[in-house]
Amino acid sequence: MKSPTMLYKHPGQHEIHGSNFAYIIVDESDIEQAIKDGWCLTTDEAKASFSEVLDSVDATKEEMIQKAESLGIKVDKRWSVETLLDKIKQAMNGE
Considering Cα of 58, then 60, then 64, then 67, what sign does the dihedral take? Predict the structure, then answer.
């Protein structure tokens, strides 16, 4: 590998800069394809990319409850959609 570069996705299993990320190391010639595959050059970009995905999801409250429960969250059905989203984000960040 002539010029190794670390790329990131959020969330992941490795704690970096206070959050959890997945990472790969690719050669400089493979960066363009990796970015097309969803990898980011910085941890900040990875977090922003993940937030955009979550914000673009048009899920019903029931779907969000199902997702939360699948992540092992004990859900209070009185929670707002915003609270559900926060709890899901926290679980996906390993918090």
Answer: negative
The rounded percent of the chain whose pLDDT value lies above 70 is 92
Side chain identity at residue 24, one-letter code: I
64-73 burial code (b ≥16 CB/10 A, e <16): bbebbeeeeb
Kindly report, residue by residue over 3-49, the tens digit of the pLDDT: 999 999 887 889 898 888 889 999 999 999 999 888 999 999 998 88
Per DSSP, what are the bridge partners of residue 11?
Answer: none
Between the alpha carbon of residue 47 and those of residues 7, 22, 51, 74, the distances in Å are 12, 11, 6, 25
- Give the integer Cα–Cα distance in Å for 90 and 81: 14
Residue with tokens 């970015």: 35
Query: Element (H or E) spanning 27, and its range?
Result: strand 19-27
Tokens of 6: 């670390």
How far is it, in rounded angstroms, from Cα 33 to Cα 21? Answer: 19
